[in-house]
Amino acid sequence: MVSGVAGSTGTDTNKTSSVLTMALPVLMKGMERNASSPEGAASLLNALNNKHDGSILDNLSGLFNGGVDDSVKQDGAGILGHILGGKQKGVQQVIGQKSGLDADTVGNILKIAAPLVMGYLGKQKNNQNIASSGDLTRLLGGLLGGNSAKSEQNFLEQILDADGDGSVVDDVAGMLLGGNKKSGGGLGGMLGGLFGK
After folding, report:
1. Which of 45, 55, 85, 108 has the most CB atoms in a 10 Å sphere around its CB?
2. What is the average pLDDT across 74-82?
């Protein structure tokens, strides 16, 4: 997946991997927060039942061969807008600063990654027979649960709570993402699953 996303965005594989490793917990946390309301959970369940049922992961070589289809990127842009809303620019700036890429390049990587993350969730939902918003919240919490180092949770809360005044980079520049901790289970397992490790 990493090399496919890197090739599709013309970005160095190591930097792409670094962006994805930082971005996926933020996206998951954003989804968890959205799913904490009944409407948000219903909307996410609906998406996982229909468009994002996991089938995108069945043919990754087809997806990446010859470049990613524009419809996938548009879908990804919609997902990011839904998950991150007004925080999207700040999130891209912080991850860009940490990974040495500009925010637009980070945005392009995330547009391709977001439908893959949704596909992964769709597969997990089907595997675990999740049908209710409570089950969905537990699934998301479980994926994040493997990453429950206090500083990391605080970072995720802060980056998503950033008020869009442009200072989010200063607020979090010294925080956790510079560290390179490996987490077992939960999100670490998801990253391994997505990256095929």
Report:
1. 108
2. 94
Cβ atoms of 44 and 78 closer than 8 Å: no
Assessment of whether the complete model's pTM goes beyond 0.85: no
Which carries the bigger pLDDT value, residue 182 or residue 52? Answer: 52
3-state secondary structure the chain: CHHHHHHHHCCCHHHHHHHHHHHHHHHHHHHHHHCCCHHHHHHHHHHHHCCCCCHHHHHHHHHHCCCCCHHHHHHHHHHHHHHHHHHHHHHHHHHHHHHCCCHHHHHHHHHHHHHHHHHHHHHHHHHCCCCCHHHHHHHHHHHHHCCCCHHHHHHHHHHHHCCCCCCHHHHHCCCHHHCCCCCCCHHHHHHHHHHCC
Residue 141 has pLDDT above 50, yes or no: yes
Q: How far apart are CA 145 and CA 138, in angstroms?
A: 10
The 10s digit of each residue's pLDDT in 13-53 is: 999 999 998 888 888 888 888 888 888 889 999 999 989 99
